[in-house]
Amino acid sequence: MSVSSNSTGGSLLGCLLIIARYHEIPLSEQTAIAGLPLVDGILTPSVFHRAAKRAGIASRICSSAIEELNENLLPVILLLNDDQSCVLKSINAGDNTAEIIFPELPDTVVHQPLAELRQRYTGQVIYARPEFRFDKRAPEIKKVKDRHWFWGVIAENRRLYRDIIIAAIMINLFAVAMPLFVMNVYDRVVPNHATDTLWVLSAGIIIVLIADLVLRMMRSWFVDLGASRADVKLSSSIMEHVLGMKLSNRPASAGSFAANVQSFESVRSFMGSLTVVALVDLPFVLLFMAIIAIIGWPLVIPIIVGALLVLIYALSAQSKMHQLSETSMRAGSMRNSTLIESLSNLETVKSFSAESRIQTNWEQSTIFITRTAAQMRLLSASITNGAQWTQHTVAVAIIIIGVYMLIEGQLTQGGLIAAYLLSSRAMAPISQAAGLLAQYHHSSTAMESLNEIMERPVERPSGKNWISRPAVKGSIEFKRVNFRYPDDERLALTDLSFNIKAGEHVAILGRNGSGKSTLEKLILGLYQPESGAILVDGVDIRQIDPSELRHQIGYVPQDVSMFFGTLKENIITGYPQAEDHQILKVANLSGLAPFINAHPAGFDMQVGERGQLLSGGQRQSIAIARALISDPPILLMDEPTGSLDHTSEEQFKQNLSRYSKGKTMIVVTHRSSLLALVDRIIVIDAGKIVADGAKAEVMEALRQGRVGSAQ
Ligand code: ADP
Ligand code: MG
Predict the structure, then answer these.
(1) How far is the CA of 249 from the centre of ligand 1 (A)?
(2) What phi and psi values does residue 374 have, to the nearest 5 degrees?
(3) What does the alpha-carbon distance between residue 49 and residue 43 come to, in Å, rounded to a whole number?
(4) Distance between Cα 636 and ligand 2 center (Å)
(5) Burial class (CB in 10 A: 0-12, 13-18, 19+), 133
(6) pLDDT digits (tens, 9 = 90+) for 32-42
(7) How far is ligand 1, taken at its centre, from the CA of residue 512, in Å?
């Protein structure tokens, strides 16, 4: 595990690797950073803990002077000036030196005077220690093991939510003050003209109102804070999960999947609204009712009846609401998939006059969605309006009962007014709860579909230990591999066995749909065989971190696709630390150089989304450059010259024959000219090997028609 100075990830990643090695935790560069948001390919302190967590290392950034570091927690990572960092192994107080390791020289311990170190030290230190690991002997308890992706994050903010609840309780207690104030003014101040008491009471109530205002503002602020803190974490974990998903579990439609991912928005807004907090108010209904009962118990009856009516109605509408929101969500994601598919294939849509079909599709689903949405709105309005109507009716009933009690002398005027005011306070949480029941379905349906996404298996499950293969030699072996695409009845590859030695050059021939591309995708670990094994350098690739494996393979896919951005960005996507001379080298190799030189923007030319601003041949050349940029030991090429013209192909062939010396190369091709590069040919048909041997033999057999078909 060596870390060179221009390695991926920068200085901090180097330090992480040193720490991992110190604790004897296997960790490779690729495993640590694959899929993390890096800045210019550099691991930053803010995402350090995510990289460390993959190795089972818990980490924390603190500000601390060197003298104040806790010696028991060494080694630690010191952040130095200019985005550099180093590992501090120990401090020798005797001669005022420190033992440090720089990521550039991971095997050398440097003794540096503390004074010198202090000059470069930014004051920020990262403590990083291995977490306790259970092994198989300690049986897992499912509930403890899996922290729910959503509730786990929410629970991290539990102190915040505790404060919100405390604030809500205070606000509710304060709410009793106003009716009591009014009652006392009516019963004591007005009859006696006691203006002094009025002022005292008013001063008191104003103080309560101010405290109430402050608490309410704090509550809103905390709710928002909790929501936005969780938002960042949740959206990154959702995206990480989506990108890490196994291809075999890939959703059928990108557009509809995107709609489901975006539905997180409705969960977010629900979480960030005060409606959830309204639930805290619910128990206070009892408090208000108790106070009303003290004023005059018969006054409680309308409130109980009203509350029951509202809740029964709201609950009875639940299943209908849920069904409607599920239907509208499904229709919405279907409509989104129509949109995304037609937008990304606009050229095809126009070329084959598919507009009308798509338009019909769109309009039908829009009409359906509008209708469902209208039904939902009507239902939820009936709940909220019904609740309000009940609230007012309850107030009227209280006044009626109150007046009778007043006439009989069981109630004072102030008591009547206080009961009236308190009744609206008591009913408010009930209306809110009913409103909540009406609103939450969007979010709950969204949660269901997000849960479904988050349960899909990922390529790199957390806690899995990978074998690190920093330098692959390049032998590839298939052992009785059977493979079937998900939801496909037929095997795409049947009982495939072959052994390719490191440095061997092999061509794969076969008819369309015979499984050539599939074979290469299996070597990349994009899909897993149903049975059998694929070995690279004698190691089953299921044991190698997929991102590390792919890093060792230069792959030119059959269908080339690019990302929006410049040509240079597209070449270095998987290898951001590439230097200019490396980029120039691959541009020459792939035959891209003349085209780049002739273009005014050169390497900065825009390629457009999916590379649509380029011709097919240009795209293919870029794909070749992209595959070669990291100088990988294994080359997998899927018809790499399919769109190249004759001269470019010839040029590329000559470059490749020089470049590929010593590298393992598998080329799928229909062009006989590329066969000059290989020593061996494997012919497959319908997923089975029908010929495998030295080039001359297989060519001869093919010419004589001796190579049969599998069917
Ligand atoms: P080729 O030899 O032309 O490269 P492929 O390996 O692409 O053939 O395809 C082999 C078979 O697998 C074909 O019958 C094709 O229909 C099927 N297939 C290819 N890709 C997929 C996929 N993503 N999902 C399901 N079936 C697929
Ligand atoms: Mg193919």
Answers:
(1) 16
(2) -65, -40
(3) 10
(4) 12
(5) exposed
(6) 888 888 887 78
(7) 9
* Domains located in the chain, CATH noted: 11-130 (3.90.70.10), 151-454 (1.20.1560.10), 476-703 (3.40.50.300)
* Tally of CB atoms within 10 A around 618: 23
Going by C-alpha positions, the residue among 658, 681, 661 that lies closest to residue 669 is 681
Task: Report CA(493)–ligand 1 centroid distance (Å).
Answer: 10
Cα angle: 553, vertex 491, 533; to 5 degrees? 45
Q: What is the pTM of this model?
A: 0.79
**% of residues, the chain, pLDDT over 70:** 96
State whether the beta carbon of 510 lies less than 6 angstroms from ligand 1: yes
Q: What is the mean pLDDT of residues 323-335?
A: 89
Average pLDDT over residues 88-98: 83
Question: How high does pLDDT run on average in the chain?
Answer: 86
Ligand 1 and 72: CB distance under 6 A: no
Q: Identify the bridge partners of residue 650 per DSSP, sorted by sequence position.
A: none
How far from the centroid of its chain's Cα atoms is residue 554's Cα?
27
In this prediction, residue 4 carries a pLDDT of 41
Q: Which of 563, 559, 556, 557 is nearest to 613 (CA)?
A: 563
C-beta of 513 in contact with ligand 1 (< 6 A): yes
Which atom of ligand 1 is nearest to 558's Cα? 4
Q: Return the structure tokens found at 104.
A: 């550039």
pLDDT at 3: 39
Q: Is the CB of 487 under 6 A from ligand 1?
A: no
Q: What is the number of other CB atoms lying within 10 angstroms of the CB of residue 479?
A: 16
* Alpha-carbon gap, residue 434 to 466, rounded angstroms: 51
Shortest-distance atom of ligand 1 to CA 516: 2
- Transcribe 196-220 into DSSP letters: HHHHHHHHHHHHHHHHHHHHHHHHH
pLDDT at site 516: 92
156, burial (CB in 10 Å: exposed 0-12, middle 13-18, buried 19+): middle
Main-chain dihedrals φ then ψ at residue 161, nearest 5 degrees: -70, -30
Check residue 305 and give its pLDDT: 94
Cα 669 to ligand 2 centre (Å): 9
User: 8 falls in which pLDDT band (50, 70, 90)?
Assistant: low
Contact 687, 670 (CB under 8 A): no
Question: What does the pLDDT look like over 358-380, one tens digit per residue?
Answer: 999 999 999 999 999 999 999 98
Cα dihedral 697/701/704/708 (nearest 10): 180
Q: Rg of the Cα trace of the chain?
A: 35
Predicted confidence at residue 711, as pLDDT, reads 46
Among 657, 589, 594, 581, residue whose Cα is nearest residue 623: 589
Regarding the beta carbon of 516 and ligand 1, being less than 6 Å apart is answered: yes
In this structure, how many other beta carbons lie within 10 angstroms of the beta carbon of residue 320? 13
Q: Classify the C-alpha dihedral 354-355-360-361 as positive or negative.
A: positive
Q: How confident is the model at residue 534 (pLDDT cuts 50, 70, 90)?
A: very high
> Taking the CA of residue 4 as centre, how many other CA atoms within 13 Å lie in the half-sphere pointing to its CB?
5
pLDDT in tens, 161-178: 888 888 888 888 888 888
